[in-house]
Structure to design on (310 residues):
């Protein structure tokens, strides 16, 4: 039986569940965990927390409460666990939320993440799928984290590019979400495991509209395109590609750029649809706050394919 107060649930592939408490308050609930993406334990904790908090920001909400989830191998040193948790706590603090407990189990592979609870006014909930013809798409972080973490694992990444990568993944989407709140945004999601093309596809799925991404305007992390052209591409990018290939058309896109579009992101930016007239102003307001945002495409009212990459 459907509960009329469940505003966003299972069936919409959205970032988080949303439950109306009363006309002024709805609860946002989300959970996200993953294995280490970097070697440093503290940094991993920060990134996992930033990623988990991001789904609340993507719904337009404010995170308030978080619970740790840890899957720990038996032989993992206590100091490593403490560092991971310290990274998580610091990010949650930065978000203005609190960690109120958690759960730990033994597992073969280390995984860490959070279940996050946030709040929002029911009338202000931003779902994935409210795009309208004439909207522009704005992305608030560069892409390429899957390719670069793959390169880092085999020690190919320069210190400088590694620092850029880590800074981007550990950055909260808090400021981007706050700025977004001042505009008439039609839809929002965050770019994570399905890659930019996959999450863009989710935004237009079933709407009878087409998202056109101009791949040359998509911000990319330093060295990500170079590694992509050398074939340093995570398995997830191929899975993403085969999963949504049927919905995507590409027009004269260099292969390395194409691979970037399917690259699975960790703690990626917000992908925002809003009226074209506001897109440049939103991007500028974000740039003023040090956010590397860009207008990357538009929504068109015809359906040649769900996503066109040109
Ligand atoms: Co999400
Ligand atoms: Co998520
Ligand atoms: Co959403």
């Amino acid at each position: 039986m459907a509960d009329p107060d469940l505003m966003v649930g299972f069936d919409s592939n959205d970032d988080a569940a949303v439950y109306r408490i009363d006309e002024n308050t709805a609860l946002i609930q989300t959970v996200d965990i993953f294995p280490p993406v970097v070697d440093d334990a503290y940094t991993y904790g920060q990134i996992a927390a930033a990623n988990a908090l991001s789904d609340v920001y993507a719904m337009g909400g404010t995170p308030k409460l978080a619970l740790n989830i840890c899957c720990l191998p038996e032989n993992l040193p206590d100091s490593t666990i403490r560092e991971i948790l310290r990274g998580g706590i610091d990010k949650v603090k930065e978000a203005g939320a609190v960690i109120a407990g958690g759960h730990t189990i033994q597992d073969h592979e280390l995984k860490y993440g959070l279940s996050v609870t946030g709040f929002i006014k029911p009338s202000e909930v931003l779902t994935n799928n409210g795009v309208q013809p004439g909207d522009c798409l704005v992305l608030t972080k560069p892409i390429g984290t899957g390719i670069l973490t793959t390169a880092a694992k085999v020690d190919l990444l320069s210190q400088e590019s590694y620092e850029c990568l880590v800074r981007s993944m550990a950055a909260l989407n808090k400021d981007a979400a706050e700025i977004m709140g001042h505009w008439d945004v039609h839809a929002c999601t965050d770019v994570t495991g399905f890659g930019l093309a996959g999450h863009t596809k989710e935004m237009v799925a079933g709407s009878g509209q087409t998202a056109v991404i101009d791949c040359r305007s998509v911000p990319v992390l330093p060295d990500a395109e170079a590694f992509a052209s050398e074939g340093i591409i995570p398995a997830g990018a191929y899975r993403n590609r085969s999963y949504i290939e049927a919905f995507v058309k590409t027009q004269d896109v260099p292969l390395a750029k194409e691979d970037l579009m399917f690259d699975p992101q960790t703690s990626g930016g917000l992908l925002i649809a809003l009226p074209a007239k506001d897109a440049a102003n939103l991007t500028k307001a974000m740039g003023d706050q040090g956010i590397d945002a860009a207008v990357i495409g538009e929504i068109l009212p015809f359906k040649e394919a769900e996503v066109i990459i040109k």
In short: Residues 15, 55, 58, 189-190, 192 surround cobalt (II) ion (ligand 1) (CB under 6 Å). The mean pLDDT is 96.
